[in-house]
Amino acid sequence: MPRVFGGAPKCASCEKSVYAAEELKALSKIWHKMCFKCTHCSKKLTPGMETEHDDKPYCKNCYGKHYGPKGVGSGSTAGCLATDTEDNAVSKFKNTHDSTKKVNITEQEKCYTCDKTVYAAEKLVVLNKIYHKPCVKCKACNKTMSPGDVLEHDDEIYCKNCHARNFGPKGVGFGISAATLSTGEYAVQN
Q1: What are phi and psi of 78, to 5 degrees?
Q2: Which of 62, 63, 83 is nearest to 71 (CA)?
Q3: Are the beta carbons of 157 and 145 closer than 8 angstroms?
Q4: Separation of alpha carbons 90 and 80, rounded Å
Q5: β-strands 123-126, 129-132: how paired?
Q6: Residue scoring higher pLDDT (70 or 11)
Q7: What is the 3-state secondary structure (H, E, C) of 128-174?
Q8: C-alpha span between 38 and 16 (Å, rounded)
Q9: What share of the chain is helix, strand, coil (3-state, %, to 5)?
Q10: Each residue's pLDDT tens digit, 145-164
Q11: Is pLDDT larger for residue 10 or for residue 97?
């Protein structure tokens, strides 16, 4: 709003004077910082993160619920979404599926350790197997590990310490010289 007789501009929401210290510019208007909120849910908005309908600000959630496409999740495809206004134009995208049919989710991914369903947010792929993040544990000491710390032996995962102790060279650190080292079952017996 333009300044009237040199005074402060008016807020687009409450229509009171907005002084420079509390001024916020968004949607080509001037607002108090506290007045710039979603028209529907009254959530405080950040300039640039709002959406607009009929010159009123909305948060992205409320805008999507009230003015976004309808029909997602009810058996429709993206080619046949509807909005509040009816469009009588003939579309080459026709939904031939009955919306009363349930969507069958085929086999879900299971955790290699606990055999429970693994969702995308908690999924880790370690040595070509799928795990929950907390299920990536050493077979010997049960320590939770990050994917980079995992070593494998006989299709099981181990931390570096347990792998070295159980499957690494024998005799290291026990007063035996390197010349007499042996490794597992392949050690030469004297």
Answers
A1: -60, -25
A2: 83
A3: yes
A4: 11
A5: antiparallel
A6: 11
A7: CEEEEHHHCECCCCCCECCHHHCEEECCEEECHHHHHHHHCEECCCC
A8: 18
A9: 20, 20, 60
A10: 887 788 888 888 888 888 88
A11: 10
